[in-house]
Amino acid sequence: MTLTELHAMKRRGEKIAALTCYDASFASQCAAAGVDVLLVGDSLGMVVQGQATTLPVSLEDMEYHVRCVARGAGAAFIMADLPFGSYQQSPQQAMHSAARLMAAGAHMVKLEGGRVMAETVEFLVSRGVPVCGHVGLLPQSVHLLGGYRVQGRGENGMVVFEDAHSLVEAGADMLLFEAIPDHLAAKMTAASPVPTIGIGAGSQCDGQVLVLYDALGVYPGKLPRFARNFMADTGSIQAALAAYVAAVKDGSFPAAEHTFS
Ligand code: KIV
Q1: Interatomic CA distance for residues 169 and 125, integer angstroms
Q2: Most ligand 1 atoms within 8 A of CB, residue of 20, 48, 62, 140 to mutate
Q3: Helix, strand, coil: what percent of the chain each, to 5?
Q4: Which atom of ligand 1 is nearest to the CA of 41?
């Protein structure tokens, strides 16, 4: 899987199936099930390390998990989160951090933030690092947002729309929308020349991502509204992963009950 192929999938209207992944064994299971994109997400801070937020995750943690995933990923595309504090200071700081994740095996980095990150995105892309921009709910800003709340409702929708637009103008090759109303995500996807991946953003995005542990029902916390436990109706991890990929590809996930309006 390559960025060129992911762009072609958008043009063909073929849905992109993504899952977070943190180790080699799950990477090979996901790849075998046909997951297109493995996101080494900083959600590992919560689901692997047991932290309350993603904020304590370090660049060294991310490098370690990217290396693990890269060993099992086969042909899947690997996206890696730039962790909190590793890119916000300057484009140069972001380049230094991104280079470490790319050297560890990532094919693209993801960073949180809208127009304020446009200069950084331009800097990274012009130096050979593909970037996915993450807008909507930004978990690394949880304390500023006052919790994990849906973003982009009402007049704030235009702010999220413009944020995504400025990232694409700066050269972002993919967008991730988290916890925004489905009608906003649909409008932003129609306007976007690059693939959009949603989590809690409705069914009209070009692809979907879930936290692997939510999809397999192994995280002890409450399942977020936008997630579905694919283990519940299947007998094995491999069958659950295949069911997730099939449901994304045929558009049956996310359903209305996983969506915000
Ligand atoms: O770290 C993560 O798991 C994410 C989610 C949006 C999928 O970024």
Answers
A1: 11
A2: 20
A3: 45, 15, 40
A4: 1
Comparing C-alpha atoms, which of 223, 224, 226 is closest to residue 203? 226
CATH no. for residue 201? 3.20.20.60
Domain containing residue 51: 3-258
The closest-lying atom of ligand 1 relative to the alpha carbon of residue 199 is 6
Per-residue pLDDT, 77 = 98
Of the candidates 226, 204, 202, the one whose C-alpha atom is nearest the C-alpha of residue 214 is 226
Active site members: 178
With a Cβ cut-off of 6 Å, ligand 1 is lined by: 20, 39, 41-43, 81, 176, 178, 199, 209, 211
For the entire predicted model, the pTM comes to 0.97
Mean pLDDT of 69-87: 98
Domain count, the chain: 1
Q: Does the structure show a pLDDT above 80 at 221?
A: no
| CB neighbours of residue 28 within 10 Å | 17
Q: What is the pLDDT of residue 116?
A: 98
Average the pLDDT over each of 85-99, 219-233, 236-250 and give the range with the smallest value. 219-233
Which residue has the least CA distance to atom 4 on ligand 1? 41
Atom number of ligand 1 nearest to Cα 110: 8
